[in-house]
């Protein structure tokens, strides 16, 4: 039976105590137990300490013991033993079984090909490269969806988004669109933050959330980060969108807005055009027709303006815990504020254990890069933005170094989905590079939408410089963090992620993922099969989006590729061997692949088995939930709808 099932922490299951002597004054010794053991538990785990111990107590998060004089020698012996056994050059003392601090760094829309450690030579990312050099780099790390909301829901819960209702049946609402919408991550989902919070971790989310806010009334905050296991939240509950830039091209419902605007303009012009023949007495035009056109023009204009005229004010806000503190957010300062709060969080909780999920606003458009980094890269504004992201990662790593937390902190770096091929600013491409992989953000099945960077660093546990090519998923974080943090996995639901520690530590050569399912909204587009008895990774596409002529595997006309409707259904499915053909450019057939029928048969059986595990659940991204609702709109300062404040310390 695994530790997860029994609920035992790794420290309790070992014969040796997991603790560190950090100071010894007179007869008093401070022991920092990595797993926050209570004094009575410490005695149980470390019975050989018992003879000389006269008093144990808890102060400031540490266990203090007072020893009999006869135990001084024992204290000295233990101290020296630990020095030789576990000391590094900075004098930190750790055991393999310490519960680490956890720092999760997630970029937004960063392409897997944008980093030096993944082969990029035009953008400089020394700090992220350092993480890869000092840790383990995953080259087949996969998001569960190619867009923000479903991918992040799966990341936090370890489950495919269809299981939590965080997948959309509608092409228009694949992400949460309005902060005043009613859909969001359901309260009954278990996030890794909730799990670690129950195990004594101090948990903080700083940056982008994008998983909903309220359900029935403005203040209920049913889907707020503080309702999902985070003790602290500072950030943008929706994220940085194109609409948040004062001078950038709007992003949400871009083409619907264009249609509404054009229709309004045409209807507004009609009354004037009709007046001409009437006044010139060319032919009779009834006044009622002129008035009806004017009325319709006003209705269209008002619907356009009421929907999108306040977009920046309503969607782009900064919150501290439950309070809106800046509305609209000053987009040029937002990223700097997030970094400041992240460093302050580390400083506040450095005695640990803590979980910091730093969910960067970078490198989603609008590409807002501050002075020093403008023109910094060889790859234009996008490259500059990536280099600023890397600099911020460096600041976090430096804080861990400064506080001597590096060796006892598990750091993870990833992106929520692949680079967006359709992103444009000032007529130029503004999205990331997905390396050799087809497609990008929004394409549900193609590799470029879901293959993302994945780096783990934990110096005392993981081998530096290891590269693993096995299929792994962002959903693996929940069981992995549960393992290292001593949490207990929920037993009442399907968890799709796998504990990565055996693979990361090199104890097993293969990932536990045999099949991975790639959804686009609620629609299954492709399946990956890592054949058990060999290294071949097959991928079958049942559905692919119809793409634009002007760009490879992108959907420039609609801004994002469709999951249904404007798609191609493949029967037989498009089959690729991505272990030999990672760019999915040479589809196999019975003529050139003898295993063709066997592979597709095996995958079809896996799909049937997988679908049998999906139970109906309320769709959080339904059209009704996606609609903006004035009574749910977070608002500060002036009365609704003229919300606004720039308060606090920002
Ligand atoms: Ca994203």
CATH class category name of the largest domain: Alpha Beta
Q: What name does the CATH topology of the largest domain carry?
A: Alkaline Phosphatase, subunit A
Bound molecules: calcium ion
Average pLDDT metric: 85
State the assembly state of the protein chains: single chain
Query: Alpha-carbon distance between the termini?
Result: 50 Å
Strand order of the largest sheet: 16-6-15-12-5-11-7-8-9-10-21
Supply the CATH superfamily name of the largest domain.
Alkaline Phosphatase, subunit A
Derived from helix and strand composition plus strand pairing, the structural class reads: alpha+beta
Uncertain segments: 1-28, 32-55, 82-97
- The number of strands is 21
As a percent range, the share of strand residues is: 15-25%
Q: What is the domain total for the residues?
A: 2
Protein name: Steryl-sulfatase
Function: Catalyzes the conversion of sulfated steroid precursors, such as dehydroepiandrosterone sulfate (DHEA-S) and estrone sulfate to the free steroid.
GO molecular function: arylsulfatase activity; metal ion binding; steryl-sulfatase activity
Cofactor: Ca(2+)
């Amino acid at each position: 039976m695994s530790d997860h099932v029994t609920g035992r922490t790794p420290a309790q299951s070992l014969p040796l105590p997991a603790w560190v002597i950090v100071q010894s004054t007179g007869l008093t010794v401070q022991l920092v137990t990595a797993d926050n053991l209570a004094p009575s538990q410490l005695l149980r785990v470390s019975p050989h300490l018992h003879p000389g111990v006269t008093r144990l107590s808890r102060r400031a998060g540490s266990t203090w013991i007072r020893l009999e004089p006869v135990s001084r020698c024992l204290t000295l012996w233990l101290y020296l033993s630990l020095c030789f056994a576990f000391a590094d050059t900075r004098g930190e003392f750790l055991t393999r079984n310490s519960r680490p601090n956890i720092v999760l760094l997630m970029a937004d829309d960063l392409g897997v090909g944008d980093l030096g450690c993944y082969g990029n030579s035009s953008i400089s990312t020394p700090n992220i490269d350092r993480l890869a050099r000092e840790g383990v780099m995953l080259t087949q790390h996969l998001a569960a969806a190619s867009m923000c909301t479903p991918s992040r829901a799966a990341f936090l819960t370890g489950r495919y988004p269809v299981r939590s209702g965080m997948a959309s049946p509608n092409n228009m609402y694949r992400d949460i669109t309005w902060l005043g919408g009613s859909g969001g991550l359901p309260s009954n989902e278990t996030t890794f933050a909730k799990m670690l919070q129950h195990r004594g971790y101090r948990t903080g989310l700083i940056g982008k959330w994008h998983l909903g806010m309220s359900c029935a009334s403005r203040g209920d905050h049913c889907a707020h980060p503080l309702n999902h296991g985070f003790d602290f939240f500072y950030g943008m509950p929706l994220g940085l969108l194109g609409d948040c830039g004062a001078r950038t091209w709007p992003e949400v419902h871009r083409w619907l807005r264009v249609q509404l605007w054009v229709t309004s303009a045409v209807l507004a012009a009609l009354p004037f055009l009709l007046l001409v023949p009437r006044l010139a007495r060319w032919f009779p035009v009834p006044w009622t027709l002129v008035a009806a056109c004017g009325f319709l023009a006003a209705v269209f204009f008002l619907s356009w303006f009421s929907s999108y005229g306040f977009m920046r004010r309503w969607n782009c806000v900064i919150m501290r815990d439950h309070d809106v503190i800046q509305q609209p957010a000053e987009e040029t300062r937002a990223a700097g504020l997030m970094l400041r709060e992240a460093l302050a969080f580390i400083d506040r909780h450095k005695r640990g254990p803590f979980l910091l999920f730093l969910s960067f606003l970078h490198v989603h458009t609008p590409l807002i890069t501050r002075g020093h980094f403008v023109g910094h890269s060889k790859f234009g504004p996008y490259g500059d933005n990536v280099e600023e992201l890397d600099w911020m990662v460096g600041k976090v790593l430096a804080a861990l170094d400064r506080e001597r937390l590096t060796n006892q902190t598990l750091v993870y770096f990833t992106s929520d989905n692949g680079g967006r091929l359709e992103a444009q600013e000032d007529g130029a491409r503004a999205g990331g590079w997905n390396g050799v992989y087809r497609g990008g953000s929004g394409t549900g099945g193609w590799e470029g939408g879901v293959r993302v960077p994945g780096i783990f660093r934990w110096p005392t546990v993981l081998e530096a410089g290891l590269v693993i090519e096995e299929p792994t998923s962002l959903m693996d974080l929940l069981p992995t963090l549960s393992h290292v943090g001593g949490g207990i996995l929920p037993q009442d639901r399907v968890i799709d992620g796998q504990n990565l520690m055996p693979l990361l530590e090199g104890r097993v050569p293969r990932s536990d993922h045999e099949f991975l399912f790639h959804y686009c909204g609620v629609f299954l587009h492709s399946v990956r099969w890592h054949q058990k008895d060999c290294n071949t990774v097959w991928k079958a596409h049942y559905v692919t989006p119809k793409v634009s002529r002007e760009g490879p595997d992108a959907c420039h006309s609609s801004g994002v590729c469709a999951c249904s409707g404007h798609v191609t259904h493949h029967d037989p499915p498009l089959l690729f061997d991505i272990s030999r053909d990672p760019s999915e450019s040479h589809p196999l057939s019975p003529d050139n692949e003898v295993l063709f029928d066997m592979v597709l048969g095996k995958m079809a059986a896996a799909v049937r088995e997988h679908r049998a595990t999906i139970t109906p659940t309320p769709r959080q991204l339904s059209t009704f939930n996606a609609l903006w609702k004035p009574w749910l709109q977070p608002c500060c300062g002036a009365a609704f709808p003229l919300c606004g404040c720039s308060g606090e310390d920002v």
